[in-house]
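Case study: Putative restriction endonuclease domain-containing protein.
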Amino acid sequence: MVVLDTPTNAAGRPTHAVLIIEVTESSLTYDRDHKGPLYAAAGIGEYWLINLRERCLELYRQPVPDPASFSGWSYQDRQVLLEGDRVNPLAAPDIGRVIDRLFPSI
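Here is what the predicted structure looks like once written out:
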């Protein structure tokens, strides 16, 4: 998610995001343990990991320095939301989404 008035580069592309959403099934461990700390190090305030295998949303917020992490950063707040739960992005709190709508029907 990129908010209005986000700085852009010479090509007009945003230079920062406030929310990154990953959809994962086979790369879950890599996305969680490698990409997550990199996003935290980049200052991304919120990271959603849509876990298709377990049909849940892993919600990561509040990047903080973490000397134990390979990137030196991690997320302080981690929540697991299940079907039926509701989520609101920090950058757009009025836009809520029921978790069920994030998953394909089976």
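For the exam, be able to explain this: The chain has one domain: 19-102.
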